[in-house]
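[job 4471] stage=fold_predict status=RUNNING
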Amino acid sequence: MALYRVCFVALLGLLSSPAAGSVCGDDRGNPDADGHFVVLTARPDAPFFYYRLGDYVLLAQPSALLAQLDKWSSGQLEPPASALRSVILSALPLRANADLYGYVLENPRLWFVTRSLAIELIEAGKAAVVDDAGNALQRLYVQHDRQHRVAETDIRLDKPATAFQLIRRVDCIVD
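[job 4471] inference complete, writing structure tokens
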């Protein structure tokens, strides 16, 4: 009987906590989804960094990568962002195109920051994306979905939810 009371009190505490009633990342507590199309940049002429997205590849100039990493220098991604920034700086100047995933293989802690970097560059229109035949995409659809327990960002080929998804990031989860 005592265990039942402890479980009941714990459940009551969880259900009455502010995090349980609010939307992850949204103080208003209103789940919603919003999206927009992003026009992508042209394929870079000079050597660039690339990151595979399944049958597609993100192409970005070193200056765009470094600018985004500098924005994060004082945020929650600081240690991995700083580590990735150091690795990128050590590779400059690029003499040939460089694979960002190679850095993730050397240091798996860079996986999330590298995926986040890809999403941020696409959303800011600071990257090119090509298909497996080398054809540059003109635009992509960015969808932000906020629910009570999770917030996500999806990058898709088109607006419908059934469109092919290139990359997804879980922005936050409420326990």
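[job 4471] summary: The chain has one domain: 2-173.
[job 4471] exit 0
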